[in-house]
Amino acid sequence: MRQYFGIAGADDATAIQGKVAGRIVALSGDTGRFVEPILALLRALPADHPFHALPVKERRQQVAESLFWLGRRVAADRPLVLVMEDMQ
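The structure corresponding to this sequence follows.
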């Protein structure tokens, strides 16, 4: 995900937020629906963000929906190979 969004090791949370939001908008996505779960995966949401207060089941569902949307959207434009590691 870091590679897809162009996130460098030195990027802070603000830079990551901008890169993710920009890419989601470029893919014609709903930033309010997809950005927060992806940022949570990348640990780029502030600790006091309301997303963290959601029940675990709902957070997982939103993350899964966002990842599936992202995969479908990217695959619509070009071939896509996904490698998932440590899926628990």
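The mean pLDDT is 89.
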